[in-house]
Amino acid sequence: MGAEQVVVVRPGEGHYVGNVEFLARSAETPRFNLAIVTIQARRHGPPPHRHAAEDDAFYMLEGELVFTADEKEVVAGPGTFVLVPPGAEHTFENRTDAVARFVNVHAPAGFDLRLEED
């Protein structure tokens, strides 16, 4: 598994699964997944969950999300980075009237495969 050449994904040309645009997938590298995620206004993210063996990282591009991790809330606007280590329960939601977008990195890879199964 893994890319044998440089991977280039131009704007809007990623692999979409719902509101998630994957730019680095498990087929290209087993080390991580990278995606751009769009959350519409007044929407919840996934139910509270844990990743047993993955780091889950978020970098806010626009809008604002409220992250809940280990029962603590963090309001995250553009430029905010949130790193959720393996085993920490977490979720997020958009409580505003504006769209929120963020970069999401899962390491190691595999998130894209699980999302496609759902």
How would you summarize the topology of this molecule?
Layout: E1 15-17, E2 20-24, E3 33-39, E4 43-44, E5 55-62, E6 65-69, E7 72-76, E8 81-84, E9 90-94, E10 100-107, H1 111-117
Antiparallel strand pairs: 1-2, 2-3, 3-10, 4-9, 5-8, 5-10, 6-7, 6-9
Short description:
6% of the residues lie in helices and 44% in strands. The protein contains one helix and ten strands, in the order ββββββββββα.
Characteristic terms for this protein:
1 helix, single chain, Jelly Rolls, mainly beta, 118 residues, 6% helix, 10 strands, globular, 6-stranded antiparallel sheet
CATH class: Mainly Beta
Number of helices: 1
Count of discrete structural domains: 1
Give the tally of β-strands: 10
> Which bin fits the share of residues in helices?
under 10%
- What is the residue-mean pLDDT, rounded to a whole number? 95
CATH architecture assignment: Sandwich
Question: What radius of gyration results from the CA coordinates?
Answer: 14 Å
Biggest pleated sheet: 6 strands, antiparallel
CATH superfamily: Jelly Rolls
Span between termini? 22 Å
User: What fraction of the residues are assigned to beta strands by DSSP?
Assistant: 35-45%
Shape: globular
Task: Spell out the helices and strands N to C.
Answer: EEEEEEEEEEH
* Poorly predicted segments: none
Name the structural class: mainly beta
Q: What is the CATH topology assignment?
A: Jelly Rolls
Could you walk me through the main structural features you see in this protein, from its secondary elements to its overall organization?
The protein is mainly β and 118 residues long. It has one domain (19-117): Sandwich (Jelly Rolls), CATH 2.60.120. It has 1 helix and 10 strands; from the N terminus they run ββββββββββα. The chain has one helix at 111-117, and strands at 15-17, 20-24, 33-39, 43-44, 55-62, 65-69, 72-76, 81-84, 90-94, 100-107. The strands form 2 sheets. The chain has a 6-stranded antiparallel sheet, covered by helices on one side. A 4-stranded antiparallel sheet has the order 4-9-6-7, with no helix packed on it. Strand 2 (20-24) and strand 3 (33-39) form a beta hairpin. The chain starts with 14 loop residues before the first strand and ends with a helix. The model has no long low-confidence stretch (mean pLDDT 95).
